[in-house]
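Teaching assistant here, posting this on the class forum so everyone can see the example we discussed in section. The complex has two components, and the goal was to see what a joint structure prediction looks like when all of them are supplied at once.
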Amino acid sequence: GAVVSQHPSRVICKSGTSVKIECRSLDFQATTMFWYRQFPKQSLMLMATSNEGSKATYEQGVEKDKFLINHASLTLSTLTVTSAHPEDSSFYICSPRGDTQYFGPGTRLTVL
Amino acid sequence: EDQVTQSPEALRLQEGESSSLNCSYTVSGLRGLFWYRQDPGKGPEFLFTLYSAGEEKEKERLKATLTKKESFLHITAPKPEDSATYLCAVLSSGTNAGKSTFGDGTTLTVKP
């Protein structure tokens, strides 16, 4: 399978700060990048879809000004959680798609 | 609207006890059906893609099959290390084109 990395794997931050999560597809070019979040014992919730060089499309109920997505190249996408609050604590997973859809290892965000 | 239903929600097996997981789907134009394995605290790991009814794929103790309405993930003589949540997803050419629709998963526990 494809190699996808996410950084950081875990982050703890104070309420009101911003956190950036990086996602890299190491061995293929991702024309489309999906960002998901997952709460404990629940399935994946799609947050947004982005194509390289274009603005992201957000799912209903996801605040685009709070979750900033940049998909600057075919191998790198970032998700920035701005002014994070405790309710943003979750497991965030990037998912690049080339010929099939792969997933990164995830980032555990804890907002105190 | 694309829908994916996985059953059972949870499955407990003894080591060596073969069984099957079900993924029922309704889509407008199936482009692909995907199976993933997810371990706690990690991103989903890609297992299989199936494209058309009658197709089968195998990997070690796992075998995935596809009909026009459902897919099965057969697990032969499972081992404790097969314990994980198995996710099914479909990609359609309908109104949800470009986005995979995920089921809620089946959590498999294999006891030694």
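For the discussion questions: Chain B is about 0% helix and 60% strand. Residues 87 and 105 of chain B are 4 Å apart (CA to CA). Think about how each of these relates to the inputs above.
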